[in-house]
User: Which sequence fits this backbone?
């Protein structure tokens, strides 16, 4: 499974801004629903999160300490 | 190309106008479509056109002499681009670049002035839009200059870090911004700075702390 941005459909207002800024085509509108397709082409630019006016889209980072 | 008066009504500048008035001014606008990554405005250049985002998103940013970008804001549908040089006659203070396909409406400065003379309520709305923009910029200036945001972001990273095989917490830049009491743009800048200094490594959906001791020093120094 490839980690992908997460969308909260309850918060999403279907404005489509995330679809328009996604450079790898991972975010698409299927009917009236914003859908995220798993792809390794997603480089976690987080632009979708940045433009979302309702904070429905999240690109979280796991924070780890590298073993020395 | 048809200028949509219903959309014009949704723009804060023109929200006070009725549909008859909007019909009379719509011929002053042009529509423009742009692809991803196109530069709309370049810092330092003269420009006499006010733009409104109709569809898509535009990043407004400054670039330092070392080539580092600082995003000031993201303009979404209904928001204006380039009001400062249009009103003060100076050069563009910022760059503007599309984040995806974008549709803009544009109006030349002389035509905008005619609209404002004919409908002073538009000028009144424009001052409100500019005041809101100034409020947002003052807040960003405060964050970038006075607050020890780097120290706070660093502290958040350390306190939410898991080891490589234990429980790992997940945080978005938006969440880190809320925790640090700052803007998302400032968190992005802080993370980039920490990476450039070699303290962390930004990977796809992972922030790897490579030098824990240095991060602890940054937190200690920030008081």
Assistant:
């Amino acid at each position: 499974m490839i980690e992908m941005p997460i969308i909260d459909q309850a918060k999403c207002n279907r404005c489509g801004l995330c679809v328009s800024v996604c450079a790898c085509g991972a975010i698409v509108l299927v009917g009236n629903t914003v859908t995220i397709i798993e792809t390794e082409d997603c480089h976690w630019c987080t632009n979708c999160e940045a433009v979302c006016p309702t904070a429905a889209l999240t690109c979280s980072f796991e924070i780890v300490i590298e073993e020395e | 190309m048809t200028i949509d008066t219903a959309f014009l009504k949704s723009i804060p500048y023109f929200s006070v106008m009725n549909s008859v008035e909007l019909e009379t001014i719509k011929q002053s606008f042009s529509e423009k479509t742009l692809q991803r990554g196109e530069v709309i405005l370049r810092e330092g250049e003269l420009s006499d056109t006010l733009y409104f985002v109709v569809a898509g998103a535009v990043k407004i940013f400054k670039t330092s002499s070392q080539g580092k970008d600082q995003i000031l804001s993201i303009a979404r549908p209904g928001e204006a681009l380039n009001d400062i040089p249009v009103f003060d006659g100076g050069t563009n203070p910022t760059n503007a670049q599309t984040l995806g396909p974008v549709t803009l409406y544009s109006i030349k400065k002389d035509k905008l002035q005619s609209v404002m003379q004919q409908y002073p309520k538009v000028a009144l709305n424009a001052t409100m839009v500019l005041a809101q923009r100034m409020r947002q910029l003052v807040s960003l200036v405060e964050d970038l200059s006075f607050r020890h945001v780097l120290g706070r972001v660093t502290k958040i990273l350390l306190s939410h870090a898991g080891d490589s095989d234990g429980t790992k917490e997940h945080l978005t830049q938006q969440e880190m911004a809320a925790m640090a009491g700052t803007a998302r743009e400032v968190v992005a800048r802080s993370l980039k700075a920490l990476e450039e200094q070699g303290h962390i490594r930004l990977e796809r959906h992972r922030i790897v702390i490579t030098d824990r001791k240095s991060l602890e020093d940054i937190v200690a120094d920030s008081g």
